[in-house]
Amino acid sequence: MEMVYSTMLLLMQLMSGGNGPESDASHQMMASYVNAAAGKPVIAMPAKEVQAPDAGGEFVKKDPQPDAPEVKGIYATAHSAGGARLEKLLSLLNRTELNSMVVDIKDDYGYITYPTDNPELLKMGTAKKYIKDLPALMKTLEQNKVYPIARIVVFKDTVLAAKNPELSFVRADGSVWKNGKGDSFVNPYAKEVWDYNIAVAKEAVKFGFKEIQFDYVRFPEGFEKKADSLKYEKTDISRVDAVAGFVKYAREQMADLGVRVSVDIFGYAASVPAAEGIGQDFVKISKYVDVISPMVYPSHYSTGWYGADAPDTKPYDVIKGSMVDTHKKLDPIGSFKPVIRPWIQDFTASWLGKGNYIQYGKAEVEAQIRALRDTGVKEYLLWNAGNNYTEADYK
């Protein structure tokens, strides 16, 4: 999940413009593609949407896993899942209502986190041995009745950008663009990038994952301010349509595999117009996934949100407000509405400074869960970057 981002920067991005909820007449499928000039990436192009109707003539999104449990999960890095910490995490799940684990399969740097001999993956990516024996891990999760979700970081991919600069964003001097933390992104317009990440997802399914969770499904923060100074392949479709096109395409490519497709998205996205700069539209993305996971950490909201001077100190109010906004955003799309499964906060945001944060523990985690329950949301995921989770009532 996207763990840390600038609250004020993100707010400016989201408020910088964009359209409201997509109308029925504007639904489009990104399903046809054209080759760019010789030696250049393949670029996605839009095509007219064709949906399979139900008996009443209207499209109905069908859950590929109707018998899946109500997911209450935790995040596990590849190091945790493949190391000694796994036993501690399983112990927590076995003695609580928690029943799922989101495991890094392609991480925030772009590394494939387990050894693979798949030439399709190795052509584009680099494999590590953080999870030395993935089949053994999957067997262990199954034995402990853990619902396994594979997290795949998509367009934030420093490894692929360095290996294939033509699939990234290049400065005038020929260097690959990096953000302030030294991370690079790859181009959401490039179909090669789409197909590579979907190939990773398909291999994860072969290992037994029940759901594929795509993260960083967007352009870099503030991209609209730097786009004109960077070289990259694109078409005349919007960044929003390029990103939504990937999500739609990914779900179609995995339609026959019996797995859910989910996407992580900024929590603010449910409360403001589309984020044209980074290419995220809450409604468009939600239409094409089985599960949507807004990141609604109270620490990531700025002063004044949901009536709170210091939102981090009001976990119940912030989560409740964000879910009310989420329902308002998604209710109009009817049968396209996915399962709402937010990421909630199980960490202390001390970087916010005195008076702006509180220590998060049992009471704060339970307050967030209560707010979800009070707004009709039954599923959630706990985020803690170090995978140190609170002992709490997770019902």
TrEMBL record:
Keywords, ordered alphabetically: Hydrolase
Domain of life: Bacteria
Gene3D superfamilies: Glycosidases
GO molecular function: hydrolase activity
RNA-binding recorded as keyword: no
Keyword RNA-binding recorded: no
Domain DUF4015 as annotated: residue spans: 73-389
Pfam families reported for this sequence: DUF4015
Protein name: Putative glycoside hydrolase
